[in-house]
Each structure stands twice: as C-alpha cells, then as structure tokens.
Design goal:
Layout: H1 8-59, E1 62-73, E2 80-91, E3 98-99, E4 104-109, E5 112-117, E6 124-129, E7 135-136, E8 142-148, E9 166-172, E10 178-184, E11 195-197
Antiparallel strand pairs: 1-2, 1-11, 2-8, 3-7, 4-5, 4-9, 6-8, 9-10
GO biological process, one term: archaeal or bacterial-type flagellum-dependent cell motility
Organism: Halorubrum sodomense
Transmembrane segments: 16-37
C-alpha cells in the first residue's frame, strides 16, 4: 500500500519542493498584504483630506452682522439715493481663518449680476475690531466692507441705488462657503438721513 523510499536523496527532494511552494505562498501573501496596506493608507489620507475640505466648505463662512447704506443726493435728478453699502462682517461660529481679500462677492439685482473678489474691488475693508491684514482670525473680529456702487469698475451695471431697489449679495470665502444677504433700499429717502439700515 505505501511505497518504501529506500533512497534518502529522494526523501530530501520531496521536502525541498514543499518548502519552495510554502515560500512562494508566503511571498505572494506578503506582497498582497503590502498592496492592501498601501491602498488603505492612501484611502485614509484621501478621506481625511475630503473630510477637512467638506468641513471648511460648510463652516468657514462669513456672518453679516449689519448692513447700512450711505444716503446722498443724485446731482442729475435731485432725488436721494444710496451710493455705497457697508457690510459689517464676522466669522461664523466654528469657522477657521477667513481672508477677506480672497473672498468673492456676488451681487444679483434688477440691474443684473456682477461677481468679483473683494481684494480686486474698489471696496474698502476697514478694521472695526481685531482684524489684521484683512484676515478674520477670532470670533470677536469685525470688519466693515464698503462697496461703492457709484464708482465705475466695482459693478459697472450699477450706478446708485434708487429707493425701493432690491438686491442679493453673496459672500463666498476662499474655502467655498457662502453667505447670502438680501438688502432692500427703503422706498423713501430724505435729506435728513445720512445713512439707512438695509
């Protein structure tokens, strides 16, 4: 039933073949494990980066604290209009650093649509509280963004805001988070008003 191996050299050859197969299996398993570990590490890094970007797009946004407009007389008609709008802005709760110079402002209203970066505007970013180099770093920081609608180059298709004028202003931070503020000029403006809340 069993064949007796009398030659000792034949017994050794059978052991070497088994050993070679075993080593080959270990090498294949090691290579496969290395590939799996590398892939898992890459996916983990990519997932962390995606999570951070998604969080930034949701949380790193501006909060509009107040909006006011400067009332002036239109020299050609004698009517009172708003020539520039001031937005006092702060970081939203949980937001990281917000660079106002890199923030995009988009205006949509009855005179059309314009979009540009605050740093490229003739806008004046004024430090109200704690702002350095146009960057909001703390939740208590406040900056006043003055957008001049009477100066060519800011918003070419807007020229003074008449009473009753409505528009939507959207601030988009460098991370992609947006905040929209609807503003409406009161239907009556008088010479007694220097500014008006919008």
């Amino acid at each position: 039933m069993f064949e007796t191996i009398l030659d000792e050299e034949e017994r050794g050859q059978v052991g070497i073949g088994t050993l070679i197969v075993f080593i080959a299996m270990v090498l294949v398993a090691a290579i496969a494990a290395g590939v799996l570990i590398n892939t898992a590490g890459f996916l983990q890094t990519q997932a962390e980066a995606t999570g951070e970007e998604s969080t930034s797009q949701v949380s790193d946004r501006l909060q509009v604290v107040s909006t006011s407009g400067n009332v002036t007389e239109n020299g050609s008609t004698g009517n009172y209009v708003v020539d520039n709008v001031t937005f006092v802005v702060a970081k939203a709760p949980g937001a990281g650093l917000v660079d106002l110079g890199e923030t995009t402002v988009q205006v949509i209203g009855q005179d059309g649509q314009n979009s540009t970066q605050l740093g490229d505007l003739n806008a004046d970013i004024e430090n109200v509280l704690g702002v350095n180099n146009d960057v909001l770093t703390d939740n208590s920081d406040r900056a006043a963004v003055h957008i001049n609608f009477s100066a060519p180059g800011d918003f070419a298709n807007y020229n003074l805001l008449e009473p009753g004028h409505r528009m939507s202003v959207t601030f988009t931070t460098p991370s992609g988070a947006s905040t929209t503020k609807e503003i409406r000029v009161p239907t009556t403006l008088t010479q007694d008003q220097d500014s008006v809340r919008l």
